[in-house]
Amino acid sequence: MMPIWTKSGKKHAVTLLKVQDCHVLRYVSKEESGGKTAQLLVGGKNVSPFSKPESAHQIFKEAGVPRKQKVTTFNVTDDAIIKPGTPLYAAHFRPGQFVDVTAKTIGKGFQGVMKRWGFKGQPASHGQTKTHRRPGAISTNKASKVYRGKKMPGKMGNIYRTSFGLKVWRINTIHDIIYVNGSVPGHTNCLVKVRDSKLPTCKEYNKNPPFPTFFADGDEKLPEDLFDEEIFQFTDPSVSY
Amino acid sequence: CRASGDGKPAKFQPPPKPVIIDKQKQRAERRFLSPEFIPPRGRTDPLKYYMERKDMIQRRKVFNIPEFYVGSVLAVTTADPYANNKSNRFVGICIQRGGKGLGATFVLRNVIEDQGVEICYELYSPRIQAIEVLKLEKRLDDNLMYLRDALPEYSTFDVNMKPVSHLDHEEIPVNKLQVRMKPKPWSKRWERPKYNIKGIKFELPESKMKEAQKWSQPWLEFDMLREYDTSKIEEKIWKEVNEGLKK
Questions:
Q1: Cβ-count burial of B93 within 10 angstroms (0-12 exposed, 13-18 middle, 19+ buried)?
Q2: Region for residue A130 given its phi and psi (left: phi exceeds 0; alpha: psi -120 to 50; beta: otherwise)
Q3: What is the rounded distance in angstroms from the CA atom of residue B178 to the CA atom of residue A121?
Q4: What are the residues whose beta carbons fall under 8 Å from the beta carbon of A14, sequence distance 6 or more?
Q5: pLDDT tens digits, residue range A149-197?
Q6: Is A62 helix (H, G, I), strand (E, B) or coil?
Q7: Element at A158 (helix H, strand E)
Q8: By C-alpha distance, which of A30, A34, A65, A68 is closest to A48?
Q9: How far apart are CA A69 and CA A46, in angstroms?
Q10: So what's the ipTM on this one?
Q11: What would the pLDDT profile of A60-90 be if each residue is shown by its tens digit?
């Protein structure tokens, strides 16, 4: 995470996400997926093919791509279908867009009810016998059962969570890095799924993206760094009011 | 000239060429790499530090961040939307330099009208318009937070102080000042060996000093997992930063 300053002098914290060897793997049609839209399988981050059996390499061989560590699905409309095997770059997103980032949260292991659900526990003194971090009562007398989904101790973390509506401040086209506002679930160097935001307030900011994606061998030549309009660039002199 | 014993005219011996010893070059070139360039120990991708360093070099090309240490007196002018001239100048002694990368900070302390004031500035913030080093010197410690519990005379610096000149090739003077403290209680127990403070003149009784040594951890200096040798990393970063600034 890094600080970033706007032209008015305000500081924002920013997370760097690197787009590492992302390729489109397969096209799944609407009938095959059983959903409302067609799907595209996308894989990221090359990894050695020797730790998995040959049967697992089927998808990658068809796309002509080395084995990927993670494969995710994106729901796409019919006009945004991309041929399997095309690489995806950071320039697919532009500064000023809003983005949802999904990742597996940091695993905390088996945790008690105070850390996992934020219960208050019991006082440390004044006669409490062996009860300081326990849940206390778990149900009422009338119910005579414990409801499903009761908050109790258990394994915490290591589940997929999404942060919605994160602004993209800056894109680096050479190293394929996306600078995204705020924090992102997961530990450092973990795999992360970045998707156009589905929040209704972010619809107008997400217009005019590179459609269906940014092609490196196309005619568009992008500069090394793409900045949002409000960012203070370090080539400018200091801010004054 | 020597007397010609053999009668022949003495061959002209040119005088020995004077050997010029350039004392300036002899003194090893003082290399100062600002501490925020050195990456901390961790599992982050070095690419992240490389990107941060590019931004830091870019900012340093436009805005001069001088060399300074903890214990030097600085004057910082920042842009302030609510001030009279839209700018605000603060003079103080640097008591702490923290943070790595673009978020590096330094804390300046001064006593203005009997009120101690500490301001934490970000080195790379665009609101800073000028940093001048009024007095470049080092102290015996890396962290002068104990000045909060010292007598206020050690933290007062004249706001209109003239900059003390410092030649390029001279070594940075180390001020071996031993500071006198206010009576206890202090904000932290500075006599304990964990803070390792050399710049305080402790006027505590011997029994208290001996009791403070109970918290010493003499095994820490032999702990190999705590060693972080930055010499090679510093070399590489020094070259990178110099090349970046020359362009």
A1: buried
A2: left
A3: 49
A4: A1, A2, A3, A4, A169, A170, A179, A180, A181, A182
A5: 999 999 999 999 999 999 999 999 999 999 999 999 999 999 999 999 9
A6: helix
A7: none
A8: A68
A9: 6
A10: 0.90
A11: 999 999 999 999 999 999 888 999 999 999 9
Are A3 and B80 inside 8 Å of each other by CB? no
For residue A94, the distance in angstroms to the closest alpha carbon of chain B comes to 19
Among B49, B51, B80, B120, most A C-beta atoms within 10 A, so best to mutate, is B51
Burial class (CB in 10 A: 0-12, 13-18, 19+), A159: exposed
In whole angstroms, what is the distance from residue B119 CA to residue B242 CA? 30
Residue B203, amino acid: E
What pLDDT, in 10s, does the model give residues B146-171? 999 999 999 999 999 999 988 777 78
CA A182 to chain centre: 12
Is there a contact between B36 and B106 (Cβ–Cβ < 8 Å)? no
User: How far is A16 from A183, CA to CA, in rounded Å?
Assistant: 10
Sketch the domain layout of chain A as residue ranges. 2-107+161-227, 108-156
Give the residue extent of every domain in chain B.
46-246
Architecture of the domain whose range is B46-246: Roll (2.30)
What one-character-per-residue DSSP string does B22-82 give? -HHHHSPPPP---GGGSPPSSSS-HHHHHHHHHHHHHHHHHS------TT-EEEEEEE-TT
CATH class of A2-107+161-227: alpha beta
Cβ contact B62–A177 (<8 Å): no
Find the mean pLDDT for residues B178-207.
93
Q: How many CB pairs under 8 A join A and B?
A: 62
Q: Token pair 């004057």 is at which residue?
A: B75
3-state secondary structure of A32: helix
Shortest CB distance from B45 goes to which of A9, A189, A237? Answer: A189
Which pLDDT does position B210 carry in this prediction? 95
In angstroms, rounded to a whole number, what is the distance separating the alpha carbons of residues A115 and A102? Answer: 22
Which pLDDT score, from 0 to 100, does residue B28 have? 60
The 10s digit of each residue's pLDDT in B13-33 is 888 888 776 666 655 667 889
Among A8, A173, A241, the strongest candidate for a mutation testing the B interface, having the largest count of B CBs within 10 A, is A241
pTM, rounded to two decimals: 0.87
